[in-house]
Design brief:
alpha+beta; five-stranded antiparallel beta sheet; three-stranded antiparallel beta sheet; 52% helix
Length: 266
C-alpha cells in the first residue's frame, strides 16, 4: 500500500484490532448496556436477544466512529496539534451515519423502518455517545496512537557519531535515533521527531531543550522547537506566522518569538 493516507489509516486501524485495552473497553461497555437494558430493551428483550442487539449496535457504531476518528486524526495533523481534538472531530461527524445505521438495526430487530426525521434525531442523540466513546478510547490508547502515527522513514539516515549525539536521543528506541528535526509538547510528554521516526518521551519540554546539546535550532513557540536544517520557509495564514518544515508540517510561531524567527529563517 503506497498511498500515504491509506497506509496510515490501515496502520492505526490495526492498532485497535490488536489492542487488548480496546477490546476490554469495548466489552465492558457492551456488558453495561446488556445488564442495564436502556431504552426499553430490558423489558422488550430476553437476555440473549438483548446481548445480540447491543453487541451489533456497538460493533457497528464503534466501527464507524473509530474509522472516521482515525481519518480525521490523519487529515488534520497539519492543522490541529492535539490528537484528542482531531479524533473528537471525526467521532462527532460519525454521529450522522451512526444515526441512520441505528435505524437499520432497529428495523432488523423490531420491523420498523426509521424515517428520515427520526434518523436525524438519532444522529443528534448519538453525539454525546460518540464523544464519550472517543474519550474512552483516547484515554486507554493515546500513547499507542501517537507511536503508530509516526511516518515510516523513506530511507535510513546515517548513524550519528556518539561524541556529538544529543543526550535526548539516548531516550529513544534505537530505530528512531537520527538527526533531530523538531520537538513538540504532547500532553505530559515531549514528542521527539528525527529523520528516522518519532517517539513520545516522558520528559518536561524545558528539560528536553537542555538535552539538545549543540544542535542548531530555535524554540519558536512555548510548545515547539525546530532544527535549522529542517526549516523550509515562512508563511502567513489568518494573521498568524507559521514555519513550514521540509516534510510539509506547519509549526505555529508565537508573537514573542516572531522577530527572532524572521531574522533567522526569513
Amino acid at each position: 500500500m503506497n498511498h500515504p493516507f491509506l497506509s496510515s489509516t490501515l496502520r492505526e486501524l490495526q492498532l485497535f484490532t490488536r489492542s487488548w485495552r480496546f477490546w476490554t473497553t469495548f466489552s465492558l461497555v457492551v456488558l453495561l448496556f446488556v445488564v442495564s437494558g436502556p431504552y426499553g430493551t430490558l423489558e422488550r428483550m430476553t437476555p440473549g436477544i438483548r446481548l445480540g442487539y447491543w453487541l451489533i449496535v456497538h460493533a457497528v457504531t464503534w466501527s464507524i466512529a473509530i474509522s472516521l476518528a482515525i481519518m480525521a486524526e490523519i487529515l488534520l495533523r497539519n492543522h490541529l496539534s492535539h490528537t484528542l481534538v482531531r479524533m473528537m472531530i471525526g467521532s462527532l461527524v460519525a454521529a450522522l451515519p451512526i444515526g441512520f445505521a441505528l435505524g437499520v438495526i432497529d428495523f432488523a430487530f423490531f420491523g420498523r423502518w426509521t424515517e428520515m426525521e427520526t434518523g436525524f434525531h438519532r444522529a443528534l442523540f448519538a453525539l454525546p455517545l460518540c464523544a464519550l466513546f472517543c474519550l474512552l478510547t483516547y484515554t486507554a490508547m493515546h500513547r499507542q496512537i501517537a507511536e503508530v502515527s509516526a511516518p515510516l522513514p523513506l530511507a535510513p539516515a546515517p548513524p550519528i557519531s556518539p561524541s556529538s549525539e544529543p543526550e535526548i536521543l539516548a531516550r529513544l528506541k534505537p530505530q528512531n535515533r537520527g538527526a533531530l528535526l523538531r520537538l513538540s509538547v504532547e500532553d505530559h510528554y515531549t514528542e521527539v521527531v528525527t529523520s528516522r521516526g518519532r517517539e513520545l518521551v516522558l520528559l518536561r519540554f524545558a528539560d528536553a531543550l537542555r538535552e539538545l546539546g549543540a544542535t542548531p535550532g530555535l524554540q519558536v513557540h512555548r510548545s515547539h522547537w525546530v532544527a535549522d536544517a529542517h526549516v523550509e520557509g515562512l508563511k502567513r495564514e489568518g494573521g498568524k506566522l507559521l514555519l513550514v518544515m521540509k516534510d510539509g508540517t506547519e509549526i505555529p510561531v508565537s508573537r514573542p518569538n516572531a522577530d527572532a524567527v524572521r531574522q533567522r529563517f526569513g
